[in-house]
Amino acid sequence: xxxxxxxxxxxxxxxxxxxxxxxxxxxxxxxxxxxxxxxxxxxxxxxxxxxxxxxxxxxxxxxxxxxxxxxxxxxxxxxxxxxxxxxxxxxxxxxxxxxxxxxxxxxxxxxxxxxxxxxxxxxxxxxxxxxxxxxxxxxxxxxxxxxxxxxxxxxxxxxxxxxxxxxxxxxxxxxxxxxxxxxxxxxxxxxxxxxxxxxxxxxxxxxxxxxxxxxxxxxxxxxxxxxxxxxxxxxxxxxxxxxxxxxxxxxxxxxxxxxxxxxxxxxxxxxxxxxxxxxxxxxxxxxxxxxxxxxxxxxxxxxxxxxxxxxxxxxxxxxxxxxxxxxxxxxxxxxxxxxxxxxxxxxxxxxxxxxxxxxxxxxxxxxxxxxxxxxxxxxxxxxxxxxxxxxxxxxxxxxxxxxxxxxxxxxxxxxxxxxxxxxxxxxxxxxxxxxxxxxxxxxxxxxxxxxxxxxxxxxxxxxxxxxxxxxxxxxxxxx
Length: 479
Hints:
Helices cover 28% and strands 20% of the residues. The chain is an alpha/beta fold and 479 residues long. The radius of gyration is 24 Å and the shape is globular.
């Protein structure tokens, strides 16, 4: 009888450890929760717990990865959710913990959750600022106290390289850790959870030139349409945010706002994600009080649950693919890509993979790589009401050492041909992201302007015939 009671107590204790309670987890409790979650996830779901670095005071920045994809399967888009960027805004860390449990418990029974985990990898960083959080406390609704990463620290959301300006603030350890994380993992979609307002903030936060206008003009990205869509997905699936009623006298139409219109900053994390790595990140302001009482957490969770789920699904809307050498079939890394009409270049990953979040429509992708003939690839992004699928392409590029003209013509790289080696994969299987274009600061070259991407030229009849002959010969040899 005593043994039976002991087992019941043990099981109950394990249950409590595995379930997020409606309270704020301190740094020690949070680490324990993540480790227990990593060890107890249900069958069919894979988890991975890892640290991306240390804080100023040596605390680990723990990340929990959650997915139901096959371990070695390629082409899976990566999503990240980040909490506690500011030490006195910890609601996001608790929402993230409950979202992890929501996904785990819904897998296999909820078709939307199952689809999401079957087709993505989600990385959770609940605690980007453990040092600042350790100094904060409940009911700190306003102010900047312990916002930074500890006393004497910096505002981590002003600490990243900027799109338009040189950021002269020395980078903190947490900033360096996130930068390295983005280099290691090709993220597609991201959200940073903040507090103190009720609105979705989208890039750019930075402005090229400041003005004396009473109202700040917008600072828009080349992917403005996509960012507005992503922001609306979140706000429209939140029960009150879309109404535009903020926590002060200000009004946000539709519950969304361009960062620069709200208030411009230099060195914001969401701008860095997009400009340096092509990861589309939004800032989610999810509570009027920065650090509300724990008794408010259940309602805040219910308000944000479906918005987070719908937002994560957007990682599967757009185009993706892989760039390969047409002869060897080896991946081509660091190929330069640009969606026609969007003046922002991005690059293929070390495995030749690329991605871009796009709204439904017809597009052209301009592709170039050192030692290969340029290509322009047409594709369609389909409209899906639920469970979107990425349009998948496999692009085979012709090496410029293969002449497409007569034997008397010197071998050289040219933009005068369009190589018809593009294949479309119709199963909609997603492929992971690449890194993105660089930024125009003192340390980096600017994104390639549209005017510098050479348009296709018309070939003569003779060159066209020779080109078809050699391309046909290559295809014949490959078969």
